[in-house]
Amino acid sequence: MGKAQKYVLLGDATYPLQDWILKPYQEDENLTQRQLQFNYRLKRAHSVIENAFLRLKARWQILLKCDDCSLELLPTLVLACCILHNICEAHDNPFNEEWLEGTEPTELPKPCQPAPAAMEDSRAEQVRELMCQYFESCGEG
């Protein structure tokens, strides 16, 4: 894209647009094809992330019962599960689909109202526009 980019988090419409939080364009009839494609790609990426967390929780069901451990241990426990999960995935360790039965996708609490426009970062629109250009150059998918 011609510009070095740092990592970004994916957010939904309720989060403020920041140069480190990408969120979709507000859905309305004025969106361009490029903006619609951006929203579509963001939604697809979000579903991949949700699936990864679902597999993580299914494989390491201790994460579903973290209220049993001390707060001091919790970050280490989560990190260990993530590392072990990534090792299992990288080495094609079999994933038992039955593990999913106990792990329903859960909606995490998030803001109900969109963030005020004053919280948005004007530089963030440049980042989103660069991502739009990138997605457009990649073609469909």
From TrEMBL:
MF term (GO), any: hydrolase activity
Keyword terms: Hydrolase, Metal-binding, Nuclease, Nucleus
Top-level taxon: Eukaryota
Residue ranges constituting the DDE Tnp4 domain according to the UniProt record: 5-86
InterPro entries hit by this protein: HARBI1-like, HARBI1_dom
Any one annotated GO CC term: nucleus
Location(s), subcellular: Nucleus
Cofactor: a divalent metal cation
Family stated for the protein in its record: Belongs to the HARBI1 family.
Designated name of the protein: ALP1 protein
Organism the protein comes from: Aphelocoma coerulescens (Florida scrub-jay)
Gene name of this polypeptide: Alp1
